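Note to self: keep these together.
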Amino acid sequence: MRQPKPWYRKQTDSWYVQIGPKQHFLAKGKDGLKAAYAAYHRIMAENKPVEPDRLTTAKVCDLFLGWSEKHNSPETFDWHFSFLQEFCTAHGDKPAAAVIPHHLTTWLDAHPQWKAGRRHATYCVKRAFAWAVAQGLLAKNPFAGVKVGRTNRREHLITKADRDRIFAAVPDQAFRDFLTALQETGCRPSEVARVTAADVNLDTGVWVLAAHKTAKRTGRPRVVYLTPTMVDLSRRLMADWPEGPLFRTHKGKRPWQRNAIRCRFRRLREKLPDLGPVTSYLYRHAFTTDALVKGVGVAQVAELLGHTSTDMVMRHYAKLGAHVEHMRDAAARATGG
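Structure:
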């Protein structure tokens, strides 16, 4: 039996799915496909798990996404959702017990545009099937032996001059504010996008973020220390948006989301092609490297970035090799020259 899929009804401008004799409303609006699929996965996950010999790949993904939405952050759920939806488009109707590593690798090869995305996609599929095994839905994970692969380090570095050019090329204040926050705090883009007025303490000059990437591992909030520029910016945005996220798209229509940020940087790369492969996350790398070049201690940099140790700073962020003059001076000091 084929897996039911969401479909759009023009007369009601709504998305539905037919499960047995019943139609389920999913979302309103023709542009609500993502919301429709999220509701669809919730509905499918609520149905009783089928017998293992009738369990499809799509059902495994539905059940896992239902669990992920309840137990992970919205960003992590969206990450799982985007890749698993793609995988189900290719192999969702196959029996879960019949898929093999070849199905995964050929699907990955069909998306040569994915760079780090290939690693993330592999992880998401492996995670869903490992969860199914842990839940007793499958006897074994067919993708257990597939290697996730190593993350390619972002060797590109954006200089202060590059950042000034980017800032000058941005026409709207909303995105300029977002870029300023990335540059002044070293935060992850997702952290900046989530900041609300309730997270800001202007008296002590900090953001205190309860929800962040390493919250489950560290068990403590992420403290972001604000420069005078960021104190002033936070105060202005708090006056504009006393409730909800501070950093919003043009005219305050909605908070900055991953896809909107990605689209803005794609347009910047088109407008300034000589800058190379600039992305939002490179601002975090530039913050780290600038701090180390200016003599801020590695332990202090790690604290500013929200890390619990200095290991991540040295392995993934510090690009001191790009600062030849600085490193030559360091070598001279090391040898007494």
